[in-house]
Fold each of these.
Amino acid sequence: MKGGKVHNQWLASLLALGLCVSARASEAVRPSDEPNVETVWRIGGFDGSSAEFHEGQPPAPAPAFVIGKSQPSKDWYAFQPGSANGGAGSRSHPVRVQFELRDQPVGLYEMKIALLVEHPRISALQVDVNGHAGRFYQHPKLDYAMGDVYGAFFPEYSTDTITFDFPASFLRQGSNQLEFTAVDEPSPGDETNSEGVPIGDSGLVYDALELDHVGTGGYEASAVRSQIVPTIFYRMEDGKLRELIDVFVGFHEKPERGSVELLLNGDVFRQPLTADRAFGEQRVEFSVPAFESSCETTVSVHLNGRTRRFTERIVPGKKWTVFVVPHEHLDVGYTDFQAKVAEVHSRGIDEIAPLAEKYPGFEFSLDGAWEAEQFLHSRSQADREKLYRMVQDGKIHIPSQYASLLTGFPTAETLLRSLYWGYAFNQKHGGPWEYANITDVPSYSWSYASVLSEAGLKYFIAASDNYRGPMLLLGHLHEKSPFWWEGPDGGKVLMWYSRHYHQMLTLFGMPPQVAAGHDALPIFLQIYGSPSYKPHSVLLYGTQVENTDLFPQQAEIVSAWNKIYTYPKLEFSDFSKAIGEIAKEAGDAIPTYRGDGGPYWEDGIAADAAYAALERANEARALSAEKLSTVSTLVNPKFLLDRGKLDDLWKEMVLMDEHTWGDSRSITAPESQESVEQLAVKDAFAVRAHALVNDIVERSLGVIADFVSDPPNTLLVFNGLNWTRSSFVDFDLDHGWEIVDQKTQEVVQYETVSDFKLYSRVRFLAVDVPAVGYKAYELRMVKGQPAENASSHGEVVESPYYRVTLDPESGAVRSIFDKELARDIVDSSSPYRFGQYLYVSGADELPNRLVQYRAISPVPDLHIQPAGGGKLVSVVHTSFGTVAKLESSDVNTPRIETRIILFDTQKKIEFINQIRKEKTFSKEGVYFAFPLAMEHPRFEYEIQNGVVDPAKDMLPGAGLEWFSVQHWTAAQDGNVAAAIFPLDASLVTFGDIARGIWPREFGQRKPALFSYVMNNYWDTNYRAGQGGDFVFRYVFTSGRKLDAASLSRLGWEESTPLETDRITSQDKAINLPRPLDSKQGSFLEVNRPNVLLLTWKEAEDDQGTILRFLEIGGEAGPAEITIPLLKVESAWRCNAMEANQLALQLVGDHGFKFDIKPHQIVTVRVKGTSTLPALVR
């Protein structure tokens, strides 16, 4: 998935947007900033970008660019094809600049041309000054500024500036002309056609051009310069290894008679100079015996009867091996309808088999197990068997991950389940289980390192698309590869980080060309040119772009290359072999990095806020559903789990978390058939998952309720967490009925949320529901008049913990006075109220850095419009606390209804915001603000298995503007701590809203938390606009200090609703004795408050059940687990894929224990028999 302005033909159809740029006019004569230098003219600005120029390539013939008349944005083309560019006709494409000189030229002139390398073949620049021809070569250096969008995609993206002098005699008073041509000199493997497809992707990309009058000095025609460049290229000649050395000779006169001699280790090598240019450079190649260490070298340049000698000390080029990993990125959609994408990848698998037979070394790595699954669904048994054989033979590699996910958004369990299909397939069909990869999406939750390590994987390979995610551009972490990525729990995976994917295509073209690789590969290898990089091998990630039919020519490139060059040696590989070999060569010189990558692309999730909230709820409730389904099989062994529904549930949620959201033109053509249908397919993943959760919960509770000694008209409330807790229950209660706590026999007071003809939607507080257990409530006709809740109208509301001053105008809170701390928590100097809705407009004018990261783009001017025009609707005192209702409105948001709940028995405040928003395609952002009265706050947020301090726990280059939160985010300054639990929206910002600053350091920020709930800042992939009804809920708490374990427990409570089942007369025809208690019961107990039961499921191999635990407080220790209804016969510590590792000690008849480390995920297999008596009917 990618976007941007293009001039590559092979990329143009894939990049989804064009950029609006301001034209920078060509400039006539003016004084220069340098003394004695006068600028004659300039085209563009030396800013490392071609944005000011016309997109694409010039017509043939190109009209002259006339200084003072022509405009860069219309008349100067950013790209000039090279003479061997097959797509441009394999011919020269000269461009001309015409200008006037009023006076007779004198002295010396200097020409400066800044260029960008955005094509694999590096063209030379031929210059003609009024008939005087010269040629110059590029010597590019890697660039990370991303002045052009290509910096996001090209691993060899680099820059060079060519500067040369020429005498006044080349010019004349009056009209003058300079002509520029991109020239591709002959090179080995210089094919122009591959199976009928033109190849040769070359040319020049212009940053800026400038002609200066630099003084009255003379032009030294006899001047000569030389540069000796040992290359990385080696050949075998007559059985001996020889290195190629380039000598660049610069001169100011035509070499009518000339030659170059190279003296190296006593041997002399001689090559002629050609007389085809009047000035400039010539590149002379020498093939010399390979040498192993630095040595002194002399070059003698013989030019028109004169000789100049140059001596340099040179070192040999490293003898590289390049492991080429054939691979194609998977977007589940984006480039086409999701179903068509499935067929393209299935067809690709079909096409791999004959290639592997024809080219024995060829192998291919899929980008997601989803591809293999789609193939199996759509091919014959014979074809399926062929795939199995290719996997066993190492010709096709199935990765562990189902697809490339946005890793900050899912729960830990969802991340683990995204590996299950790949694990099962490889275990069954003989594939290795060694690596995971993420392609394209720069989303690396710190927890993912722990997840992969706990799954038993050794390697993690990532290829980052830096479009709107400049992690590698800012942090250069790829230059540190390979490195250990260590998770919060200390688990490690060996990581290789690549600057983008489809590296074969960007380095060699596609179909690939040896000549292109010759030019691009040395630039690519600059990444690994540091002395600290010990290996002599590198990994080349991927061969072609996403979702495309397979190019068979990629299978030929290794043999074609190796016939010409001994080194660099190309070798087909898979990810595991490549990184394994590189790690061996690195030895002990492998660093370790800890930290979070920041959720760069996950801001796009907020473009689909309603379905994102649904998915967030699904992933929380799915854990309860799975626990219930497992408990139901223990309660009633006759009940067989519907494994198909559970598998489908996890797949739907994984696909919702997959990084592709919509069509490539979802922003530019949001109402097109493809945009609408792709978004419908995407959102259906969440809708189907929601239906499956309900189905599994309702069926499982029905099984359990049958064994509970309660009659019809009983409401069973189930707690999926492993500690006793109190929480709200919402359900429909018929008019004239009441709720009675079966344990206390007390009538339970409730709040009416909404009223209907026959019933009311009510909310009551279920108190002390047992751990992984249930509590029963009787539903009966009202025996007396139900008590009415008292109401008041004041703007100050209180609980035993807080005194809250409402602000009706803003629909939010003016003050929260913490009675225990005797201080106000809210920053009264903030322009925003606590919990206030903010609508942000702006960022429509392109280019800007919020929509697209680019060095030259400005930060947009954003306009924050807080909600207003509000009023206080009511204040109601209930049995559990006080509920205040307010209303307000904002731009494009005609209604904001806010309920603020203060609790009598818990130190927390809940905010429930129901908003109605109008849809717009103009750029917008929506936030809820939480300003805090603190000095020098330290921020934290919870991830799947740990806590991140964004000021110190981030990987180099990580995103620092928005963050993805699992359950809570907090700020503290040593005197006070405050936490916000964003239940429906995962993104937060700290100190300010997101502005497109892309900071390199977190720095000191203002004491404010912002929940980032909506935006449409992307220019591709995500939803273009959203409207309708939305709900955003928050919980707030504060204290002198807030420990992670307590916050995480509260976060899990708030996000994990109590599930309910109403026993009806249809459920129980007669009242039989039943084995489960009529009041309440617990099915599992954990003795440590910092250990969470993530899930409880049937084992994949049907051998017992699997329990997964998570340490949430950062505290190591032994954990003891009790399962009252199970006689435990054995317990095994497993890896996360359920492979037994260590037998655990049993405790009594019903328990076992294990040691757990801080933030660790622990998986346990338990086998036993149910102790619950059978139900006799």
Amino acid sequence: MLKKIKLPQNRELLNLFISGLAITTGLVWMFLGNQIIALLVTEHNQDIFYYFFSGVIFSLAFIGFYGFIRTVLYFAEFMIEEENLNALIYKNLLTEEDEGVFLKTRRGVYKTMTPVARQILNLEDKQVIGFSDKELYKFSTANKILHEDKRVLEYGDTIEWETPGSGIRKKNDYLCKKVPCRDNSGSIIGILGICKNISTLKATQRLNQQLEDRYSNLFNKLPYPVLILDPASFHPYSFNNAMSALLDYEKAEFSRMRISHHIDPCELTNFQQSIANILDTHSGEFETRLVTRQRDIVNITGYAQKIIIDDKQLLHMFLYDNTDTRRSTDILIGSELKYRSLFEHANDAIIVVSPNSLNIIDANEIAILLLGYNRDDLLLMSIIDLDTCADHTLTQAKIIDLETYNHALYEHQIQNKKGEKQVVEINAHKLNYGKEDVYQFVIRNIGTRKKTEAALRASENRYRQMFQSNMAIKLVIDPDRFCIEDANMAACEFYGYSIDELKNMNLSQINILSRDKLNILIEQTREQNLGFYSCPHRLSDGEIRFVEVRDGPMEIEGRQLIYSIIYDVTASKEAENQALVASKMFDYSTDAVMLINDKNQVVSVNHAFSSITGYQQSEIQNSAPEIILSSPDNLLLNESVYASIDTSGQWAGEIWHRLKNGQSRPLSVSINCIHNENTKTSSYVVMLSPKYGHKSEHENSIHFVELTQLPNRSLFIDRLKNALDRAQRNKARLGVILIDFKKFSLINANYGYDLGDQLLQAISKRLSYNTRDSDTVSHLNSDDFAVLIEDLDSIQQVGIVAQKLLSTLSETYQTAEHSIDLTVSMGISIYPDDSKHSDELITCAQAALTTAQKSSVSHFELTSAEMNRTANMWLQSEAELHIALRDNQFFIVYLPQVNLQNNTLTSLEALVRWQHPEHGLLLPGQFLPDAEHSGFIEAIGRDIIEKAFKQYRHYLDLKLNIPRLSLNICKSQINSGLSRLLVEQCSQYKLQHCSIELEFTEKDFSNITDSQRTVLRSIHANNFFICIDNFGSSTSSLSSLLQCSINAIKIDPELIQQAQHSLEANKLLPAIKSLCISLNIEMIAKNVDSVKTYDYLRSININQIQGYLISRPLSAGDVKKFISPEKIKVQTSSSTLHN
């Protein structure tokens, strides 16, 4: 609404008019206000309205008065300063040559504005003079202008902006600025606006920027590095992309670095001198080496020129990377030198020939020596001159090959200066030699090689003839393809195939065994060092023949083959089978058979002999056969027997046999002679059978029960008395076991006597099968049996045997129609613990049997509570050992052994521990004796060996330096299976035999049998390390060193203690050490627990020790902590107790 009203031109006059009207209204109300209220308002409201309107009207009058006074004062001020403002405007116009000018007062009111300024500020159609920006612009624009004006008036700032013109000036660009307008005293009295046409200036700037961009683009895209360098600071003034890329830096990073940082330190001084020379001469070339970000060296050649920019001396530098060129030059020079060196020092003669004239243009020293010419003479010759052929056809043909294929290889004869002909191999090549092609002839004298090849062919033919003509069957086998590579004529005749058929034939066509089974057989043969193996082979007609194969590796043309020699052993196999049949016939014959050697000694008897005569093999072996005769003065092999054998080859007759109770009976006898042509010795087979026609049944029933064929009570008592005599002489124990079956009579009553007899026969077989040959099993009467056990080591052993028999006899008896379970009771007596007389021993056993029969289950009893407690304890221990082995309750700790000379580990001793579920941790001495007596030691030993080897392999995989693993072996483990077990485990875990140490106590080592000594020799032959533990604990110490080859001894701790307190013992240890040195045996001290013992051992130069001073036994995990790259330190604390 206000915008449509036409305001007066002079705003100040309007202000005076409004102010005067407000003042006049106030004066009228002051004099006539009561009358006006009285006329318009009722009487009771007059006061209220009067005071209200009085306040409003007087307020308006006051505002009008203020406006009037202010307008009057403004007119006075502007009129005073207007002349000064106009003067300043024209003064600035004269000095600035501006095209548009405007003037504003401090209150923001425009006082002057030129037409150009109106057009630039887009105010052509508006009344400007006397108005402020609030009235000319929108609210936001006005606020912005007021803010700028405030900065100009209060702070004296200059405000600049660019704007395009409008109307006829819209093609021009203007620079506008507002500056403070000051009087002569410097006070700001207004704002002066200036608008200047900058179109020409902008065009010039754009042109300059285009030129700058074009130059910069060209500068950065140059393919070679360009650098503008400030020689004073050595900082880059400018550079292109190729320059920063050359040194592999970002542009921003490169711009901050001095160029000297990129110069090879060895070249920096030369570069600085080059720069100084260029500054003096204004331009010049330079060379240097730059270092890249990756510390690579770049060889640089460059040209620099001095330039001036902004009155500053700079160097415009062009750089060229000649690293590849220099490298190529160096490689070319090196190649040339290398070629020349190879040329001169080659093992073969080399001649270089010109392709055009075939003249020799170069030759090495070997060629000069081979041909016998000096260099000058040789260079005047042609390659044709060396040819021995008159027509030179071969040489000319090879020259054509060189031109066609660039290569020729041939053998030829050439002649030297003396005219001697030489067979040579010529390897010719066409080469590019500089700018021209040449022929290079490499000449090798092969005269010697030809002779060798001829000799080799002759040798091959000779051995081929030997291979083919040999009567033995021979095959060459390719193991990778599992086929036959070659065969001789004997193989063809044996297998029925031709050579062509045998060659490349799969081995499975003749060998019945599969490839896997054959490989296993071969591996087992090699492990046992047999040198041969046997297997069945199939011939072409399907016949199976047993062969013995002896093979070995051979190499032909780099291929690994197997050379096999095959023997047909079918006949010997049949002989072995016949011998086996004969052996079985000997064992199972119902007649008594006795073998006698040429020294009139019994070699062997069969089971029927023991049944008929009552003598066991252990009683009669190596004795004279006359022991069975009723009259010992008679000879079994007398002159009449020899005469009959010489005449008819056999003697038959009758002898009287003396029973053990002194009675005699007749036996039918036949004696045959077996003569060995090779040894010229004779053996005799004696066959005996009872003479049943002469009351033999009655006499046989005297000592044997007919039903079970077991000794009866009388024979049992007789054997018991003899056994007591032997036990007394040998100071050994024996045991008597009486066996009874509960309610056996009920079985006879319910099932019949036939079934009862079958059970008794089954019981007798079970007893016989589960006792030794030296033990006596007797059928006393009805269902009562007895067992005599000799050579007992301890009471516990008879308990183990009894438990074994109890378990066997309690198993179900299966007949054709019934399954029967028997309750077994046993009574046991021990000599000499219970008695030294046979009758009393049987009585004690009977008393124990009576006690056992009171139990409702199968049970055995000994004569005393202490014996029963001991036996039960051992049986319980055996059961617990079985459970421990099954549940993996055994574990290993490791005791280190160190060398004091260098404080390094030499061995880890594996010690077994038992984590008992009830008794806690048990040491070896608490359970190994039980294990050894019960036979569990072998199973425990196998378990410990496997665990220790597996852990040792793990340590080696962790790169721990453990030279040896030590294992404790007891005497009962020394058997043929031990050696095989060690070899198998080493193979499985890929361990060297020499890294495994086996420790045997001196007591066990001194008492080993001959067979065990053989096992130890086998173990030592397999390179296992053998050590004697507790050396010096018995009187046989020194002799044990000679029992078997050993590698080390561990001194008994008691001997070391005695040596520290006894002068005699102190002399013994050095003597033992000297002996060990002479026998190349290591000497180790064990249980070293105190610093005193440690110092003593060091004083006598015993450097290998083991004990708690070094370390307690370590768990598998603690071993890794104990072994470190640092040397092992010996504790120097007070001694500790050894557990």
